[in-house]
Amino acid sequence: MVIDKIKKVTVTDTKANTKASDMMVGKWIKCDNCKEILYKEDVRANFSVCPNCGKHFRLSSRRRIAQIIDEGTFEELNADLHTTDPIKFEGYLQKIKSLEEKTKIKEAVKTGIGKINGINVAIGVMDANFMMGSMGEVVGEKITRLIETAIEKHLPVIMFCASGGARMQEGMISLMQMAKTSAALSKLNKAGQLYISVFTDPTTGGVTASFASLGDVILAEPGALIGFAGPRVIEQTINQKLPEGFQRAEFLLEHGFVDRIVERKDMKNELFNILKLHNY
Amino acid sequence: MVNKMEEWDRVLEARKPERPKALDYINYIFTDFTEMHGDRYFGDDKAIIGGIAFFNDIPVTVIGEQKGKSTKENMQRNFGMPNPEGYRKALRLMKQAEKFNRPIITFIDTPGAYPGLGAEERGQGEAIARNLLEMSNLEVPIICVVIGEGSSGGALAIGVGDKILMLENSIYSVLSPEGFASILYKDSSLYKKAAKEMKITAKDLKKLGIIDEIIKEDNILENTKKVIAKNLKELLSLDKNKLVENRYQKYRNIGKGEENDIKG
């Protein structure tokens, strides 16, 4: 059974988080966890999860939306919003432009309205392929606008989180997005709408320390790295190796910071079920 | 003379051990400071001090990140790096301030939230996130003063307020200039360049609209007291709804991106 295999997953090598796009070259890929050589189409058909060991590979925002949202119902919001380069950081705009061309996406989060088995939701999906999913003004603004739209249209909010933290190239403007998004969620709370946050691999830094940790319901994908400080920073601080499984989804579940760990193949139905339980 | 300081000089100034720390401000500005301990869940974090005091004749809640002036004191205070229980203590005291209608004054001075094993186990991210959400919504005036080193989420966790003030030689940044240099320039020796490019001084942050007022350092404690008094007077004249809505808009309007074609 797949579930049994999932439980056996022990992800210890923090450097093994190779970007999905790097692995997906040619027709075959190598699982960075079990080292098995896999046929790419098999992996895709299996929700981008290793059929051998259950490792959940990183997913682009486009594929994630295709897995979660009913076909043909997703309407993207604020797709063209881009950074103003607030601290005029040398080379930043050029980097954004070249990433846009390379990844065919415009920012580290895609937001919009769509249906889950017929239920309307406001959904945001972060993408680690775009500057490690870091949060700058565009990510903060898109998420805030999504929450404000949800309040206006009486919709639940679902956020799939994946981020290395604040977008350093935007200086303090990026840090302030933590306050902005959290304040918007406070308004959503007052409006009585549901907020489901899903931790995916990896979610760290300023995103963990803001909207990702504020869900009414918090889900996580198996094996996802979730933390405030990155593992390397902690190792350097305490001067010792981190225990196996530290900062993984299962660790957070055990310590009370995640409600449920959900396999990717079950995610849509799980969300649907939680939405129904909240009378949507 | 002060204006000629390079950004990196201000970083050094902001981190100086002999510079006034939160407790120096608290003892000078307030009377009858009564410290309260513990988060009611886990423990008492000595990197964050909190309590109740009089500001002139008004009872206020005071929170401060406390660095030490000596190595021994710094060991006790964990170099001003809070653990989750510190942020949860701060939140407990701030919610209490709301209950008793007391304004809140916070003093920010930290190299960052502590990146330790226990901090992660006890939910450092969740603790900071919770404070951001709750502070955005408290129905009492909040004044935050960056007195030394305001670094990252660990500073922001007690830094969401109606007025953000900065001492002239304090810094407020998304990470340390050393960290920024090693990550973005791949060369940690370029920390001086990083300090300049990151826009972390009071003057730069005022220009960016992130802080409200700069406090001169010619008479550091007295000036801080006067500026707090002026801002508190202004905030106390607002009704609660207006206060909270203004605070929301303040953060709502920081960094909004733009829709038209990318420049550069």
Describe the structure.
Chain A is of the alpha/beta class and 280 residues long. Chain A contains eleven helices and nine strands. Chain A has a seven-stranded mixed sheet, sandwiched between helices. In chain A, strands 1-2 form a two-stranded antiparallel ribbon. In chain A, helix 6 (137-153) runs parallel beside helix 7. Chain A is globular, with a radius of gyration of 18 Å. The relative contact order of chain A is 0.13. Chain B is built from twelve helices and eight strands. Chain B is an alpha/beta fold and 264 residues long. The mean pLDDT of chain B is 96. Chain B has helices at residues 7-15, 22-29, 71-76, 84-99, 117-121, 124-135, 152-156, 177-184, 191-197, 202-207, 220-236, 240-252; strands spanning 31-35, 48-55, 58-65, 104-110, 142-151, 163-167, 171-173, 213-215.
State the separation between the terminal residues of chain B, measured CA to CA: 36 Å
Averaged pLDDT of chain A, please? 92
Pair of chains with the largest interface and how many residues each contributes: A-B, 67 and 54 residues
Mean pLDDT level of chain B? 96
Low-pLDDT windows of residues of chain B: none
Strand/helix succession of chain A: HHEEHHEHEEHEHEHEHHEH
Tell me about the largest β-sheet of chain B.
Answer: 8 strands, mixed
Q: Widest sheet of chain A: strand order? A: 3-4-5-6-7-8-9
Principal-axes geometry of chain B comes out as globular
Helix content of chain A: 25-40%
Radius of gyration of CA atoms of chain A, rounded to a whole number: 18 Å
The percent of residues in helical segments of chain B reads 40-55%
- Unreliable runs of chain A, pLDDT <50, ≥5 residues? 1-17
- Give the SSE order of chain B as H and E letters: HHEEEHHEHHEHEEHHHEHH
Q: How far is it from the N-terminal to the C-terminal residue of chain A, by CA?
A: 32 Å
Could you tell me the number of beta strands of chain A? 9
Strands of chain B, total number: 8
Instruction: Provide the β-strand percentage band of chain B.
Output: 15-25%
